[in-house]
Amino acid sequence: MKTFLNITFFVTASFLHAQTGINTDKPKATLDVTAKKEVLMIDGLLPPRLTLAELTDKGNNLYGAEQEGTIIYITDVSGGNSLSQREYISSKGMYIFDSEAASNEGRWMCLYCIGLARGTKTTRLQNR
Q1: Coil vs helix vs strand at 57
Q2: Worst-scoring range by mean pLDDT, 38-42, 49-53, 74-78, 104-108?
Q3: Contact criterion met (CB below 8 Å) for 115 and 122
Q4: Which of 27, 76, 94, 119 might form a disulfide with 21, Cβ 3.0–4.6 angstroms?
Q5: Which pTM does this prediction carry?
Q6: Of the candidates 39, 52, 59, the residue with the CA atom closest to the CA atom of residue 106
Q7: Cα(92)–Cα(3) distance, integer angstroms
Q8: CA dist., res. 128 & res. 104, Å (int)
Q9: What is the pLDDT of residue 81?
Q10: Are the C-beta atoms of 51 and 80 separated by less than 8 Å?
Q11: Pairwise CA distance, residues 17 & 20, whole Å
């Protein structure tokens, strides 16, 4: 019985993949999203979209070391606040969480921001 289970395990394991593909049977990375390339099909990747107010409601302790590299898109900065982890959120755009910033408290850093930054038009890439 033990031999049968070992053989079954090895045969089954050879069919398992640690990669996930969307629109592809042969993913080439951990997550491989392939466009459908149909003329009337919209292709792209939409990150989670939040307003600054919604992110503020989540507090200052929800995101930590395990969320390093998390990407979100801020759609509106008219509400909420720019305190603590949200210090650098000043305009609409794509932000990435850097858990090691500010003495490991973490900060949302601008990956690509465009729009009105509390009254000023900005396009910037912000480094730590």
Answers
A1: helix
A2: 38-42
A3: yes
A4: 27
A5: 0.71
A6: 59
A7: 59
A8: 12
A9: 95
A10: yes
A11: 8
Q: Which three-class secondary structure state does DSSP give residue 93?
A: strand
Structure tokens given for 70: 């998390």
- Residue 87's Cβ-count burial label (10 Å; 0-12, 13-18, 19+) is middle
Using CA atoms, how far residue 73 sits from 14, 27, 84, in Å, is: 39, 26, 18
Tokens representing 44 are 């792209």
| pLDDT band (50, 70, 90) for residue 119 | very low
Cα 104–Cα 108–Cα 114 angle in degrees, nearest 5:
155
Q: State both tokens at 57.
A: 């409601």
Cα–Cα distance, 69 to 28 (Å, whole number): 21
| Whole-number Cα distances in Å, 63 to 46, 60, 67, 121 | 20, 7, 6, 28
**pLDDT recorded at residue 102:** 86
Per-residue model confidence (pLDDT) at position 31: 87
